[in-house]
Amino acid sequence: MLPTNRQHRGLYIGRAGANSDGMIDNHVEQSGSTGPNSDRLEARLYDYAIRRKAIRSLEVAAAELGVPISEIHVAVARLVELHLLRTDPATRDHLLPTVPQLAATALVSPIERAIYQWQELADRFRERIAGIAGSTRRDDEHIGVIDGVSGVAEIRGVLGSAGRDCRRELVVLHPGRHGEELVDELLETCYRVLDRGVAIRLICPHQSRARFASRAKVSQLLDAGAQIRTRSRLPRAAVVFDESLAILLDFPAAPGGHPTARRVRDRDVVRFVVDTFNQHWDDATPFSAAAPGYADAVDDLHRSIARLMARGLTDDGVARHLGMSVRTCRRHIASLLQNLNAVSRFQAGVRAAALLDQPARPQPG
Question: Count of CB atoms within 10 A of residue 109's CB?
Fold first, then answer.
């Protein structure tokens, strides 16, 4: 019979403490002590478990892999600690392979929670210091704080901490151009304030009306009590909590890049972000779950297309600016040509420029 997960962890962890600090320290120490040979054995053993659906006998696995049983025990213990192997709950004497994504989530979640807790503690220290300094130096009230964080876990922790302290209103600019899924994942922690009755105003791009997944998410927020409007284009992702803290998000267009965030407490800068949001809000189109596709926003969308055409952008350029597919963009351009009674794209650009009271300037798309 195979040892249980707890017994395997004992082989690997050794003197690891029960607290999260000890766990992290031991992981770092042990990761540094394992060499390429051990990593290769663990990879071979994991591949063995994948191919055979389970490890039913360590002795058989050692024989088939041509490895001493003592090394198999150590490799199994490491794989269990990494959550890549788990005990079969049905038989209790087999080890089953785990999907790598699930293993990573199970292993990293406690570390992320620890990051959130430390981040929240740091925020409380800053607020306490600011409160004490503010009560003694009124002449420095205009001086604020801007600091930066990078990485998904760190940004999620910052947003989660700010969301827990939010009491009145949360405003969100969601441009949705690059990494839309990642933006949704990070902002999910903010939307939980709806459960406490905190108001949310959200502006997202018109494309959220047409994409099925985006429309479903927006409709859920609408049902939960959020106010939502859409615009053709938005400057960047930003979240403001109670008009006192702004978090500006930046998502790299190139794959593999890390998101970054700027946390702003300066009153004047936060007020500027809120004013910018309110200007977009006033010009945005209210979102309705009942209206199909771009229906409610088609006029604003066509105005944006006309502006871009008047600047001389190609169909690809217009589509790229508005974050929609070229095929969808061309369909709207065709409709716009008909509305402008234009027989060519050039004529449509000229007439659009006249309607918008701006000169038509050729510009590469």
Answer: 11
Could you list the beta-strand ranges (E) of 232-354. Answer: 237-241, 245-250, 260-264, 285-286
Relative orientation angle of helices 345-356 and 298-310, to the nearest 10 degrees: 110
pLDDT (tens digit per residue) in 254-265:
666 778 888 898
Q: Both ends of the chain: CA-CA distance in Å?
A: 67
If you average pLDDT over each of 4-18, 88-102, 297-311, 342-356, which comes out highest?
88-102
Find the length of the chain.
Answer: 365
User: What is the CATH topology of the domain spanning 5-98?
Assistant: Arc Repressor Mutant, subunit A (1.10.10)
Closest CA to 76 of 49, 101, 102: 49
Digit-coded pLDDT (tens) for 177-190: 555 677 778 888 88
Domain positions in the chain are 5-98, 107-286, 295-356
Residue 314: strand, helix, or coil? coil
